[in-house]
Amino acid sequence: MASDSVTLIGFWGSPFALRVKWALELKGIQYQYVEEDLTNKSALLLQYNPVYKKVPVLVHQGKSLAESLVILEYIDETWKQNPLLPLDPYEKAKARFWSRFVDEKCVPAVISTFSKGGEEQKKAAEEVRENLKTLESGLEEKRYFGGEKIGFTDVATGWLGCWVRLVEEIVGINLIDTKSMAKLNAWFDDFLEHPIIKECMPPREKLMEHNKAFYKVLTSLST
Ligand SMILES: N[C@@H](CCC(=O)N[C@@H](CS)C(=O)NCC(=O)O)C(=O)O
């Protein structure tokens, strides 16, 4: 690995790695991508992320960083072109708030909808809908969370638009109500249709297969 190089260690189906890929692509940064086998973790991953042993990992000038939101901030501070975080401290804090809200509230509720059955699943699905409605309020009257341009929160949370729709199809429960969440739904579409964002997205069928397999693992664990 050249000392000034940028390397992303990822896994094609990881939304957390996708966030980092999106940020690097939106900023036009040259990088090397290394695909990780999560069933047989490489010495490289264990060396660079000994704490969590997860992807993504970013290696820049020989120094490694883990945790996708931390990596996004590093990228934004290191390469100033096409800024992701707003300059205004309050707006910047809000961008971090919504990104954490998705990781801490939305993702666990979607996982519960995916892994539970019966009443527990219904409750989890209701929680997903409430959380998505709350997330929608963060959009305010803007096109993207970043305003007229894709920003930090968009990059951190926009993958939900694809994932939640796959989960809906697999478990047969509606989570994004297109009527009561029209603004959120339109934002998901708009974001996912952006050429750079779209270019990095794995094919839907491949993601569907991957999520079906994930569903099998989750449901077998919870029974
Ligand atoms: N909080 C982490 C989550 C990363 C994560 O969960 N990565 C998954 C792939 S989607 C992983 O590497 N899993 C391997 C494992 O848990 O052993 C981040 O934001 O980067």
TrEMBL record:
GO terms for molecular function: glutathione transferase activity. InterPro entries: Glutathione-S-Trfase_C-like, Glutathione-S-Trfase_C_sf, Glutathione_S-Trfase, Glutathione_S-Trfase_N, GST_C, GST_C_Tau, Omega/Tau-like, Thioredoxin-like_sf. One of its GO terms (cellular component) is cytoplasm. It catalyses: RX + glutathione = an S-substituted glutathione + a halide anion + H(+). It comes from the Eukaryota. Keywords: Transferase. One of its GO terms (biological process) is glutathione metabolic process. CDD domains: GST_C_Tau, GST_N_Tau. Belongs to the GST superfamily. This is glutathione transferase.
